[in-house]
Amino acid sequence: MPYLATLSFSVLAFGAFGMPSDTPSENEKAPNAFIKHPVEQNALLSKARAANGDLYSTLQSFVCLEEIERYREDLKRSKTRLIDHVSAHISFENGVEHYNDVRQNERSRASLPEISGAWSEGEFGTLLQQTGKLLEIQPVSFVAFETTNGVESAVYRFVVPENDSPWDLAVGAQHFKIPFTTDVWISVASGEIVKIARKSISIPEETRISEIDWDVSLAAVNLSGKVWLLPTAAGYSVSYGESKRRERNQMSFSNYHRYGSESSIRFDAMR
Q1: Cα angle 148, 25, 213; round to 5
Q2: Going from the N-terminus, what domains does the chain have, and what CATH number goes with each?
Q3: At what angle do helices 38-59 and 126-137 cross, to 10 degrees?
Q4: Angle at 203 between CA 201 and CA 206, to 5 degrees
Q5: Side-chain-facing half-sphere of 26: CA atoms under 13 Å
Q6: Which of 51, 86, 87, 138 gets the most CB atoms within 10 Å of its CB?
Q7: Would the CA dihedral through 41, 30, 195, 259 be positive or negative?
Q8: Which segments of the chain have a pLDDT < 70?
């Protein structure tokens, strides 16, 4: 019997559908002499906090195409089934994602909530927004150096307890605050966030959910002769321990366009 689960501020899901936080197998350890010392690690973290604020503001200037492939996995039999393909044009305004022209297997839908089964929202900007705020207030620890998507990065980690969590899980009429751990990949060169991965395993037993993962990766996008760091891929998954079942979504962002005219862009650059 499927459960209706809502992860507020981040994910909305029927059947407690989530997204996988797969640690990229291609990531390699990449020691960097410049930030081996804790003082330099803290300096990079401060640089990242400032860079993230600029990135968050930048997101509100773009609209793009989001494509979602939804899967159901039987972990006992190692079987994966593609459920459907969902697409939408997405923008980020006043700190909230807006979805237009929603389609499920090319059939027009009024909105994402109209689609039965599992769906999610928040990958484009909400996760980044929340991470930026939490980096300011949560104790952060350095984890390792890695190269992800070709970018030499420092990985930082923070843990958000239940009482401070912005992540709300609703199963039926019940709501649960979900504690979680977040890893943040920060470019050594620029201080920009290039990946975020959030995981929760401390989930009430009555939900029958054993783990929830959610991640987003950012990469350089060339638009109008300028390079921007923007979300390009995301994912989330919800695992059920007893039934050995997992629901997951894989998302991609493409076809970026900026709001406004080229003249307004030139004006902003001159100020």
Answers
A1: 85
A2: 4-270 (2.50.20)
A3: 150
A4: 140
A5: 5
A6: 86
A7: positive
A8: 1-39, 117-118, 170, 172, 260-271
